[in-house]
Amino acid sequence: MDKNEKIKVAITSGIVAAILLILVLFLALSGKKENDEKLLDKNISEYASLESSLNQNGDSGILISSESADSGASQNAEDNAGTAGSSEDSDMQANSIESVNDISGNSLYSTKAAVLKNIYKGLAIDTNAQLKEMYTYWSDNNTEAVRDLAHLERFEAMSYKLSGTQDFYYYGDLDSTGLPEGTGLAVYGDDQYYFGEWKVGKRNGNGTWINFYPDYSNYVVTEHMYTGAWSDDLPTGEGQEHYDYDFTKMNGDDIYVQNAIGSFENSYYNGKMYIITIDKDQNTEEWFGTCQGGTWQQVVNTHLDKDGKIPVLQNKNDEKDFVSMTEEGTKDNRVSGIIIGGKKAN
């Protein structure tokens, strides 16, 4: 091999060595970055997980947050003050909330009561006979027949006669003074009905209240129901609230409840609640949360989201997914629209 060939071989070997060195360094650095990202993701996931806190509360997924809402108030204010020099853990806490797939809206959809129009043109009604007819179906647990009757004009006309009052027409058991006592059926204004237990003229015990909406109603809600425990004319105890909707009238901003199951106090959500929401495409989601006197409590181990809203419901199937609300939206959550305080009309 002559001198020129030796020089060419040396140069080629040097270039190859340099390329190999660059590849080794690139792969090493790439591997380190990938490992770091995996570690960061792992830490964020571990922080976002509520399993530990739920287990400490002796719970299987239902959230407990009244204590954290009080003891953590100053911490939340500090976390959202935007002060410089926050720790790496605080950054991860913020990231875990910002990555949440929050539902739009500031609160649960606020329901309006049905409004009946005077379109019945003096239609003759027989209050006692009509309620007796409905009572038979209701006592047989034939809700579909009850629903069909409620949408007949003669039944809507019966309810319309009570418009603007709190009084009700009644069919059922009475006490010695003529007050509803035992099991009975009542119709109120605004197309509202109640079937169940009574005591001293008020809804007490177990029963079902339904607010039907007339077929001509141009409203997103088509039926609003509560079934469960009652006391002093209001939902109190264990029960379930249910809504049916006209999906074509839903928007993409509000949070529509299909079912709210749990404890109630004077119609307010009060305690651990299991919520099923539904959207305009009829997709449902299941959530857990805690309400105190109608006010949603912040989910344990969470912080305000990037818009300053409070995480109050956690997805049953995804512990990183929350429903967040404004402070105002967390309040006054209850079975709304129930006519109360009336007396049996003649």
Structure explained in plain terms:
Helix 6 (127-139) packs antiparallel against helix 7. The protein has a domain at 1-48. Strand 11 and strand 12 form a beta hairpin. The radius of gyration is 31 Å and the shape is globular. Mean pLDDT is 79; it is low at 6-12 and 15-102. It has helices spanning 3-48, 51-56, 66-71, 73-79, 88-98, 127-139, 143-150, 153-160; strands at 169-174, 180-188, 192-199, 202-212, 221-231, 234-245, 257-265, 268-278, 284-292, 295-296, 310-315, 318-325. The protein contains 8 helices and 12 strands. With 346 residues, the protein is an alpha+beta fold. The relative contact order is 0.14. Strands 1, 2, 3, 4, 5, 6, 7, 8, 9, 10, 11 and 12 form a 12-stranded antiparallel beta sheet that branches. Helix content is 30%, strand content 29%.
The overall pLDDT, averaged over residues, is 79
**Percentage of β-strand residues:** 25-35%
Following the backbone from N to C, one meets helices and strands in this order, namely HHHHHHHHEEEEEEEEEEEE
Helix content: 25-40%
Please give the count of helices. 8
Number of strands: 12
Q: Describe the oligomeric state of these chains in a short phrase.
A: single chain
Anisotropy-based shape = globular
Alpha-beta content class = alpha+beta
Low-confidence stretches: 6-12, 15-102
Alpha carbon gap, first and last residue: 123 Å
For the report, how would you describe the main beta sheet? Answer: 12 strands, antiparallel
